[in-house]
């Protein structure tokens, strides 16, 4: 049950949110205009949805301290508002300032609905508590949304930086450029295995000409990829073995003797064609 004083305060706030909605939306959207890439109609639409959700929650019986966390309409409105700002690239400071702008707008509006100074004070405390919680939630949602976007963009960059090329009938190639880490190895492996199945490839060339250094970790990633390719029934040729890389691999004691290696992509392609021709003749004799 709500106390008499709190019920009175919440009644004032609910009335204010209902009667002044158009003014609140206009003032709040106006304060945000120019602070980010959002457009006016989008700001007003989101402001209207959030204020309606707040009006419903304030007019209910859920304690103010739990409204942001437990009222579905308020939480959904705040979450969608913050997630969209993250997607369009709004600055974190702009997101925080938007909540402060809403607080200023609501506090100014309270004065028009009661002349009781004590009631105004209690209403201001309630607005501060409510919108401070909203600010914490929106910042957390914004940060989580930006992290998710960054991960998605990183994944997209990895996919673009590891294209699988069809060089010849039944021959695919993956030219690697830059560092080969665990995340990129997974992308390479997934893309290559899917391409092998789609093109019925029999030889896959992994070209490491653009890989600056090969250490134990990189070598292990290569071995994993080669093993996965062979499980798909294809042979793997590693090309781009420069003298410095060959020396490093030898010094590290890494055994690549069971893998077909070539110094250049051209040599690897010639080897791949020969392997296919040999396999074709073998199939013909068997048949």
Please tell me about this protein's structure:
The protein has 287 residues and is an alpha/beta fold. Helices cover 70% and strands 9% of the residues. The chain has helices spanning 4-19, 21-32, 40-58, 64-70, 72-87, 92-110, 117-161, 182-199, 216-231, 243-252, 265-286; strands at 165-168, 171-177, 203-210, 235-239, 260-262. The protein has a five-stranded mixed beta sheet with strand order 1-2-3-4-5, sandwiched between helices. The model has no long low-confidence stretch (mean pLDDT 81).
Q: Can you tag this structure with a few keywords?
A:
single chain, 287 residues, alpha/beta, five-stranded mixed beta sheet, 5 strands, 9% strand
Question: Layout of SSEs?
Answer:
Blueprint: H1 4-19, H2 21-32, H3 40-58, H4 64-70, H5 72-87, H6 92-110, H7 117-161, E1 165-168, E2 171-177, H8 182-199, E3 203-210, H9 216-231, E4 235-239, H10 243-252, E5 260-262, H11 265-286
Parallel strand pairs: 2-3, 3-4, 4-5
Antiparallel strand pairs: 1-2
Helix pairs in contact: 1-3, 1-7, 2-3, 2-6, 3-5, 4-5, 4-7, 5-7, 6-7, 8-9
